[in-house]
Design a protein that fits this description.
Chain lengths: ~280, ~290
């Protein structure tokens, strides 16, 4: 029962709505402004104040950004980001499912050691070990490559830990039954464990996709070739050095394009997203 | 926690672990080990050989006023980011929790800035406050305030704090709202019957019951401010003016890649590593406690 004397009515009720609406508007404002800037022409922006309502240059600006961009076509940067984000999400989920299965469902020498070694990686974000990681990737000739963008970022155990927690809650009877039926371990994994993990996998995919898409420092270091830039790191590269004036409409169109995919993922998969968020913080 | 039912064999589990072990060894343990190793050496100017200096790099760092200033900057920055993003989120969550229906709509409207990358958030805020074309800077000028975060250290800090906190409000709002909705109505209504006004109820009942959520968010937000705000700082201020917004992670990047001071940068990495370790211990201590709830 949510209604009672605690909720206020009348004037107080409206104050609550007004307060929330102001909050929503303030939070939206930067994005609205970026959108408006992506629909007007450069002269309208460089002679402040710029308009606060959209103009008529929408198609022109977005076409220019996608087809030619500044250093590289934004369409190409979008594709790079997509490969990186999907690669990180899928890669991390696959290796984590396998290793969590091994750790939970088998007894073998060194199992605890492996578990703790993997667990240690929870502690150290890539930002902390950038220089040596860069050297490793460079020595493999993986600069300006998708594998260089993806592998260092899947070397962490958050997902393994999560799947381990989930597998622990799977009833023992299922594995027992599979064993009695003479099913081999991988059969059990494919036919029972994997289907049961569907929701967890989907929720994790949403979180990892956003994580991968929004990477900045790592792509900045290892993609020196503009055609390998991801969109999130590519925006900053579109600003001219020195006193030249930035091409604001194109840059703002790129910013909108850069936030669109992860925002669509969050909004369309809200339930999974919230679940993934709560899961990954446990 | 152990499973009672397990499968036999050791070759299969080893094979299953192999991909993760290889990736972790090559891209995690080896680089982390290298960071520790390199922190003990100073390479010669030509990069041909390096000289063992023991803890020399650390001694130098801790005596370096710029590095010490960066510690203070990081503390101020993460404190402010945490305070601003959690404060705004709590305010909005308390409002949304007061609604009989419709809190779901506001939640849907408020969560998606989470998806905006810190670096993109940086570009958006930099655009609003740009000294030449920024709308907000221009209106501030009309009011007689001359905004210039390129020169003014305080304004630069303010801008990176707000830009970093902005995207984080969604996350905090989600957890605060969930925490508030988990508080039993009956407790609050009982207090209301006793005549406690909203503010008294909040101070004596809601806030204490919310403290596990608050503490959890505190740790998570500090970690965020430490490690995930590089994009905001790089896009808006590049650590300037002078060193005013050079947080520790930014300094590792600047000294290591721009300054090519490998030993010093590695030593900084090791110090950060210890800091992350401490934060993780705090987090786990707390999670252990939360399990008992």
């Amino acid at each position: 029962m949510r209604d009672g004397m605690v909720e206020n009515r009348g004037a107080g009720h409206w104050f609550t709505h007004i307060g929330l609406t102001i909050g929503v508007l303030v939070i939206f404002f930067p994005i609205w402004l970026a959108f408006v800037a992506s629909t007007v022409s450069q002269p309208e922006i460089v002679s402040p104040p710029m308009p606060l309502l959209p103009g008529d240059q929408f198609f022109e600006n977005y076409r220019k950004a996608l087809v030619s961009g500044v250093n590289a076509p934004v369409a190409l940067m979008l594709a790079n980001s997509l490969v990186m984000a999907v690669g990180i999400a899928v890669g991390k989920i696959v290796i984590s499912l396998l290793s969590a299965f091994a750790i939970v469902y088998f007894r073998f020498p060194g199992r605890r050691l492996f578990f703790w070694l993997i667990f240690l990686t929870l502690m150290l974000p890539v930002e902390v070990r950038i220089v040596p990681t860069y050297e490793v990737v460079a020595s493999f000739g993986m600069l300006n490559s998708y594998s260089g963008l993806i592998f260092p970022l899947i070397a962490s155990a958050t997902a393994t830990f999560l799947f381990r927690q989930f597998f622990m809650t799977v009833p023992d009877e299922l594995a027992e039954a599979a064993r009695v039926d003479g099913a081999r371990p991988m059969r059990f994994f494919w036919d029972i464990l994997l289907p049961m993990s569907r929701t967890n996998i989907a929720a994790l995919f949403v979180i990892l996709f956003i994580y991968g898409w929004n990477q900045y420092l790592w792509p900045l270091l290892i993609t020196t070739d503009p055609s390998m830039n991801t969109i999130v790191m590519g925006i900053k590269q579109m600003f001219p050095s020195g006193d030249d004036v930035a091409d604001w409409p194109v840059i703002m169109a790129t910013s909108i394009l850069a936030m669109l995919p992860p925002v669509i993922v969050v909004v369309s998969m809200q339930k999974l997203f919230i679940r993934g968020l709560v899961d990954s913080e446990k | 926690m152990e499973k009672r039912v397990t499968f036999k064999g050791w070759l299969l589990p080893m094979l299953l672990l192999l991909p993760q072990v290889i990736i972790t060894a090559v891209f995690f343990f080896y680089p982390a080990g290298q960071a520790v190793w390199q922190s003990l050496f100073i390479p010669d100017p030509f990069g041909l050989s390096s000289r063992f200096v023991g803890l020399g790099n650390f001694e130098y760092l801790l005596g370096d006023p710029y590095y010490r200033a960066s510690f203070v900057t990081t503390a101020v920055f993460s404190g402010l980011v945490t305070l601003v993003s959690m404060g705004v989120a709590l305010y909005l969550a308390v409002l949304a929790d007061r609604l009989i229906k419709g809190s779901g709509t506001y939640r849907a409207l408020l969560i998606w800035p989470y998806a905006v990358a810190p670096a993109v958030a940086g570009v958006l805020w930099m655009f609003m406050f740009n000294t030449r074309v920024g709308v907000v800077a221009w209106y501030l000028g009309l009011l007689g305030y001359d905004w210039n975060h390129v020169l003014n250290e305080g304004e630069a800090m303010g801008l990176v704090v707000v830009a970093s906190a902005w995207g984080r409000i969604s996350y905090n709002f989600l957890f605060f709202l969930a925490g508030l909705q988990a508080i039993p109505r009956s407790v609050i209504e009982a207090a209301a019957i006793d005549g406690a006004r909203f503010w008294t109820r909040f101070r004596t009942i809601v806030w204490p019951l919310l403290s596990p959520t608050t503490f959890f968010l505190l740790v998570v937000n500090v970690v965020y401010a430490f490690f995930e705000t590089f994009g905001v700082i790089h896009t808006i201020t590049s650590g300037g003016p002078q060193q005013a917004t050079t947080i520790l992670v930014y300094k590792v990047f600047k000294d290591g890649f721009v300054g090519q001071d490998l030993g010093g940068s590695a030593a900084q990495s090791v110090i950060l590593l210890v800091l992350v370790g401490l934060l993780t211990v705090v987090q786990f201590k707390f999670i252990e406690r939360r399990v008992h709830y």
